[in-house]
């Protein structure tokens, strides 16, 4: 079956078509670019619905012989064979659906991008292929390949279509993430060299159970495992990011075009969370315990550091960037708890923040488009001129601060529930972040939408607002509505997602020893 | 009873519909809201009647599974929440009707009704919750409703600040609540009230943990119910439209805190320390807020402080172990405070100011509002035969029989202050001559506004007779499922209560009615004390200069750390790499001499190393 390959690579069709379109036909480019994101969306939704109805996802696994790295007579034939392998479980499926949904919405929101639209969409679609592939990959080599695709695509999208300081932001992104990737490559290389396989499932088996003769070139000592896990976690800490490795995130959030940030904050950051869960807990459950305390503490630091810094920002994008840092802290808190509630909370937080960040940046894009600024000191009282927009922005703020009934609450609540079982005092300190989250979200959003009407005069040096008081247009309102609907759906009935996670989580908990 | 879940559903539908179609429906929106709450009220009555059988009903649905644990949401109908449903739905319905007149002509009329629907939905959902998780969720939604309504006049900077403050101040309490709930979960493996009570009963929950969680949850109640020291948002919340104040102060929002403690009563009863905390905070707040109420000049702020004070009474009752007295006072207070706010709204509607110094002489001009306000004032002051008298008397009796003499006298003092500031308000607004010329003719409010007030006026008297020493303790029997036994309190308590209330009225009359005592009696004798009260004990300033200042300086400090230290480290790393690269590339200058020099130096270095180590390493 080639279902997953189709799902992952279908946006390539769009790239191929775009190559034949003239640069000046921006309408056509927009249509093709958006349409190219639809096949993965439909396929992933189909897979999700099938999975809810009880279809076993393993049946979608794909494997083809690809390369043989080495041939040792004393090892089995399967050793050092790298195959093209895709496969998903409930966990990766959730992230794939998230990617596909945000991919389409970001493509729609890209209507606001006007320069070099052809190249922009080609890279945007490449980025989507990379992201889908990361979650669908069933072995380390392909995981890494797709991860690097996202790195390159993102670098170019930021560097070419970004804001004023785009190049600096792009290099900053490349530097940090490249370093993380390099570290990850070392870990992967050692693992593959020692075990002769890159397949996740096989690796999991080999690391956990005594292996048969002729399978393993050399056993991995406990010390080696600790080092490998440490490297892995550090690599993903660059990409999450964990404080103090977060500076690149701030620049990218501010400089990248808002539709790209929808994908960046929405999906790319979650790859780190996914990696920590899938590889950290999945492959090194026993060693993970040793790191759990540090991870939880780092999570609390992330939460408070991000929230306190968000509190003093004047640029809405900065507020959201630091809030991303804070929210990723909740993921770490959940992982640090290392129990069912914690891990489930980390996953929920990833999905929820993906939706909420996408909504926020969709709206930020609108704001930048209408007023030429997203500085909260220059805006105010927009609820009068843009009531629908303001309503959505307030909803985004409420979701950010973790209002029950919206998705963010489920993630935060569950992650903290997990940590309270292990480290109640640390968890209580982290919970203070909820107060700061309320403070910075409301401060930012109320300054924009409430109060005296400001922002009618574009500041010096800025272009005239294109349509002084145009509220959300259809192409903005529909994505915003879809995102809000999803945020509400997850918040009101989280079992919808939790049901899909149950099997994957149980496997992980078995690895952790109950 | 198994249809209890429809009670909160109607206002939710009203919220969704009005958000979607409101701008098209305009003034018709009011009818949607009124109809929805009326249906809720009828359903709530239905629930109350079917609860008469005495059976407690509970239904649960899966919300989320975590491993083997299943978190549920559901509805439960107990004596307490069946009663609360009716009170909440009734007050909300009356406020919906009243708002039709008060908010007429407002540009965002339908939005207002949508928010009212959300607010009512949240409160009804909270009341029906069978577990703490769901209670916490609705608890926060109640906060959202009040936030939206307080900030309804979004273009006013004050409203913006007040809404933000209300949300953040109550959030501080909410975090305490959340921590308490999460701790309880790991102790009892459940969020269900019943499971928690069972754990308290059979000792699974250690005494220390009981006290800790009870107090943490009480912090949430302090925030929501505007108790000291998290009360400062409540007076500012007066920025919202007046019907909202009535709703916030009577049956929703602030009542939520009292309701929560009442719903968790078995947990509190198990810990003497927690009970003491509740009683002391309550009693202290009752007097504290009442003293501030003495000198305020904004009609709504006086009422706001009186709410804080009255909620203190309810907490005192709970802390003294009298659950029935607290719910009794919650009920009577819901009626007379809603009445007072609606009447105040009617006054503001007529004279377009909230400053009582600019009012006066309105008795004849507002023939409906004035007597109704008087009824409310008499009731809250605890004048015999009015509802407030009976419920306040119950609380005083509870404090006395509980043996907390200090708290008892504190409550008596608060009663004196209450009747004084209420009648100060009454005389300044309605008695004497108009002190200010108001634009346009002062006219009585339309029927839609007076009718709900009349209903509340009747209830402000009648509600007292559900629990009296004379006719029977119907409410007590109801809430305890017939197991009620009234602790005989000494008869003199009622006499004391009645006399202090009359004394307060008399004093107010002397100062503001007859004016035999000069009005600046206090400000002339104790200017600093007066200023202290006028500025609400400088609580806002205190917070600004401590907590807020601390957080913002930490935030600023971290800003520097982020910009210079973290960024600096990265610059250092990249700079080092760059410098090495630059040095290396400088060597590549294409001159044979340089290369020769480097090669020679390298050779020399190798020779030295070779000589020093003896060449073994080769």
Structure notes:
The complex is a heterodimer of chains A (514) and B (618). Chain A has 22 helices and 2 strands. By secondary structure, chain A is mainly alpha-helical. Chain A is globular. With 618 residues, chain B is mainly alpha-helical. Chain B starts with 5 loop residues before the first helix and ends in a 5-residue tail after the last helix. Classes of the chains: A mainly alpha (514), B mainly alpha (618). Chains A and B meet through helix 13, helix 15, helix 18, helix 19 and helix 20 of A and strand 1, helix 5, helix 6 and helix 24 of B.
What keywords describe this structure?
heterodimer; A: 514 residues; mainly alpha; two-stranded antiparallel sheet; 3% strand; globular; B: 618 residues; two-stranded antiparallel ribbon; 72% helix
Global Rg of chain B: 31 Å
Biggest interface between chains: A-B, 55 and 48 residues
Shape of chain B: globular
**Could you spell the SSE succession of chain A in H and E letters?**
HHHHEEHHHHHHHHHHHHHHHHHH
Q: What structural category characterises the helix and strand content of chain A? A: mainly alpha
Largest sheet descriptor of chain B: 2 strands, antiparallel
List the helices and strands and how they pair.
The complex is a heterodimer of chains A (514) and B (618).
Chain A: H1 3-9, H2 11-19, H3 26-36, H4 38-52, E1 62-68, E2 81-86, H5 90-109, H6 117-136, H7 140-161, H8 166-195, H9 200-208, H10 222-239, H11 247-255, H12 258-283, H13 285-310, H14 316-337, H15 340-371, H16 382-385, H17 387-400, H18 407-422, H19 424-431, H20 433-449, H21 474-492, H22 495-511
Antiparallel strand pairs in A: 1-2
Chain B: H1 6-25, H2 29-51, E1 57-66, E2 69-77, H3 79-102, H4 109-128, H5 132-150, H6 157-188, H7 193-202, H8 207-224, H9 233-236, H10 242-250, H11 254-263, H12 265-269, H13 272-293, H14 299-319, H15 323-351, H16 369-381, H17 387-401, H18 405-430, H19 447-462, E3 467-468, E4 472-473, H20 474-479, H21 492-513, H22 521-525, H23 527-534, H24 539-587, H25 592-613
Antiparallel strand pairs in B: 1-2, 3-4
Helix pairs in contact in B: 1-2, 1-4, 2-3, 2-4, 3-4, 3-10, 3-15, 3-19, 4-5, 5-6, 6-8, 8-11, 8-13, 10-15, 11-14, 11-15, 13-14, 13-18, 14-15, 14-17, 14-18, 15-16, 15-17, 15-19, 16-18, 16-19, 17-18, 17-21, 18-21
């Amino acid at each position: 079956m080639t279902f997953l390959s189709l799902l992952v690579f279908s946006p390539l069709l769009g790239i191929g078509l775009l190559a034949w379109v003239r640069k000046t036909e921006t309408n056509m480019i927009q249509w093709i670019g958006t349409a190219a994101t639809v096949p993965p969306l439909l396929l992933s939704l189909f897979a999700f619905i099938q999975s809810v109805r009880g279809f076993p996802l393993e049946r979608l696994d794909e494997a083809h012989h690809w390369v043989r790295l080495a041939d040792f007579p004393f090892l089995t034939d399967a050793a050092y064979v790298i195959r093209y392998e895709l496969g998903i479980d409930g966990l990766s499926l959730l992230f794939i659906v998230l990617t596909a949904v945000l991919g389409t919405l970001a493509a729609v929101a890209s209507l606001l991008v006007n320069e070099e639209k052809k190249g922009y969409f080609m890279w945007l679609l490449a980025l989507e292929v990379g992201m889908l592939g990361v979650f669908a990959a069933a072995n380390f080599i392909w995981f890494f390949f797709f991860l690097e695709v996202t790195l390159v695509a993102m670098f170019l999208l930021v560097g070419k279509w970004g804001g004023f300081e785009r190049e600096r932001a792009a290099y900053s992104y490349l530097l940090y993430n490249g370093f993380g990737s390099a570290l990850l490559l070392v870990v992967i290389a050692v693992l593959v060299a020692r075990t002769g396989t890159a397949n996740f499932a096989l690796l999991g088996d080999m690391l956990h159970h005594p292996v048969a003769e002729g399978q393993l070139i050399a056993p991995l000592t406990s010390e080696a495992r600790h080092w490998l896990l440490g490297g892995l976690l550090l690599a993903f800490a660059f990409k999450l990011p964990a404080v103090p490795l977060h500076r690149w995130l701030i620049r990218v959030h501010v400089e990248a075009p808002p539709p790209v940030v929808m994908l960046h904050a929405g999906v790319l950051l979650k790859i780190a969370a996914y990696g920590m869960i899938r590889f950290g807990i999945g492959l090194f459950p026993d060693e993970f315990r040793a790191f759990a305390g540090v991870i939880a503490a780092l999570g609390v630091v992330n939460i408070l550091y991000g929230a306190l810094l968000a509190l003093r920002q004047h640029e809405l994008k900065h507020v959201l960037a630091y809030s991303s840092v804070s929210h990723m802290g909740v993921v770490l808190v959940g992982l640090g708890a290392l129990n069912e509630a914690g891990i489930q909370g980390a996953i929920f937080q990833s999905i929820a923040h993906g939706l909420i960040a996408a909504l926020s940046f969709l709206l930020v894009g609108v704001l930048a488009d209408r007023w030429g600024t997203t500085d909260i000191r220059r805006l105010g009282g927009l609820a009068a001129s843009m009531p629908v927009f303001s309503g959505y922005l307030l909803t985004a703020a409420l979701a950010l601060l973790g209002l029950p009934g919206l998705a963010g609450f489920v993630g935060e609540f569950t992650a903290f529930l997990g940590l309270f079982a292990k480290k109640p005092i640390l968890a209580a300190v982290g919970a203070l972040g909820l107060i700061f989250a309320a403070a910075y979200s409301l401060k930012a959003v109320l300054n924009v939408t409430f109060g005296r009407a400001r922002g009618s005069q574009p500041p010096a040096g800025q272009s005239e607002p294109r349509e002084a008081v145009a509220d959300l247009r259809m192409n903005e309102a529909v994505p915003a509505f879809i995102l809000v609907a999803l945020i509400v759906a997850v918040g009101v009935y989280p079992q919808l997602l939790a049901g899909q996670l149950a099997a994957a989580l149980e496997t992980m908990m078995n690895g952790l020893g109950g | 009873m198994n249809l209890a879940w429809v009670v909160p559903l109607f206002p939710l539908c009203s919220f969704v519909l009005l958000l979607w179609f409101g701008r098209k429906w305009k003034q018709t929106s009011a009818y949607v809201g009124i109809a929805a709450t009326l249906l809720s009220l009828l359903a709530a009555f239905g629930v109350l009647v079917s609860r008469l059988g005495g059976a407690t009903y509970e239904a649960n649905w899966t919300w989320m599974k975590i491993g083997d644990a299943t978190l549920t949401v559901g509805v439960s109908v107990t004596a307490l929440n069946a009663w609360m449903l009716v009170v909440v739905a009734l007050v909300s319905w009356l406020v919906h009707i009243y708002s039709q007149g008060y908010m007429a002509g407002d540009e965002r009329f339908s939005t207002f009704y949508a928010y009212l629907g959300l607010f009512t939905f949240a409160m009804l959902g909270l009341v029906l919750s069978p577990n703490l998780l769901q209670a916490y969720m609705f608890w926060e939604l109640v906060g959202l409703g009040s936030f939206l309504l307080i900030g309804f006049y979004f273009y006013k900077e004050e409203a913006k600040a007040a809404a933000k403050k209300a949300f953040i101040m109550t959030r501080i309490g909410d975090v305490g609540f959340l921590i308490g709930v999460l701790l309880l979960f790991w102790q009892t493996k459940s969020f269900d009230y019943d499971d928690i009570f069972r754990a308290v009963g059979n000792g699974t929950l250690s005494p220390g943990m009981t006290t800790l969680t009870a107090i943490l949850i009480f912090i949430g109640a302090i925030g929501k119910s505007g108790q000291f020291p998290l009360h400062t948002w409540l007076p500012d919340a007066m920025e919202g439209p007046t019907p909202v104040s009535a709703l916030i102060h009577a049956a929703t929002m602030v009542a939520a805190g009292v309701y929560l403690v009442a719903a968790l009563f078995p947990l509190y009863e198990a810990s003497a320390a927690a009970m003491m905390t509740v009683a002391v905070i309550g009693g202290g707040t009752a007097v504290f807020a009442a003293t501030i109420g003495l000198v305020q000049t904004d009609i709504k702020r006086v009422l706001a402080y009186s709410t804080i004070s009255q909620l203190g009474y309810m907490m005192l009752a709970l802390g003294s172990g009298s659950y029935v007295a607290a719910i009794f006072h919650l009920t009577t207070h819901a009626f007379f405070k809603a009445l007072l706010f609606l009447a105040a709204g009617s006054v503001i509607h007529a004279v377009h100011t909230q400053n009582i110094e600019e009012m006066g002489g309105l008795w004849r001009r507002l023939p409906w509002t004035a007597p109704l306000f008087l009824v409310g004032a008499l009731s809250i002051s605890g004048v015999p035969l009015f509802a407030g008298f009976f419920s306040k008397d119950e609380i005083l009796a509870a404090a006395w029989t509980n043996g907390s003499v200090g708290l008892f006298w504190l409550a008596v003092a608060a009663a004196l202050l209450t009747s004084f500031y209420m009648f100060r308000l009454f005389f300044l607004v309605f008695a004497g001559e108009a002190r200010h010329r108001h634009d346009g003719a002062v006219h009585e409010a339309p029927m839609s506004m007076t009718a709900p007030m009349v209903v509340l006026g009747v209830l402000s008297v009648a509600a007292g007779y559900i629990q009296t020493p004379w006719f029977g303790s119907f409410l007590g029997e109801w809430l305890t499922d017939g197991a009620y036994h009234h602790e005989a309190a000494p008869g003199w308590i009622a006499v004391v209560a009645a006399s202090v209330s009359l004394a307060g009225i008399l004093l107010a009359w002397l100062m503001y009615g007859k004016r035999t005592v000069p009005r600046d009696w206090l400000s002339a004798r104790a200017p600093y004390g007066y200023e202290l009260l006028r500025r609400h004990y400088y609580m806002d300033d205190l917070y600004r200069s401590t907590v807020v200042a601390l957080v913002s300086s930490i935030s600023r400090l971290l800003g520097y750390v982020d910009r210079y230290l973290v960024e600096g480290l990265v610059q250092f790393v990249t700079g080092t790499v760059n410098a090495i690269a630059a040095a290396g590339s400088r060597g590549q200058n294409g001159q044979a001499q340089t290369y020769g020099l480097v090669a020679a130096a390298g050779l020399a270095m190798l020779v030295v190393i070779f000589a020093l180590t003896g060449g073994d390493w080769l």
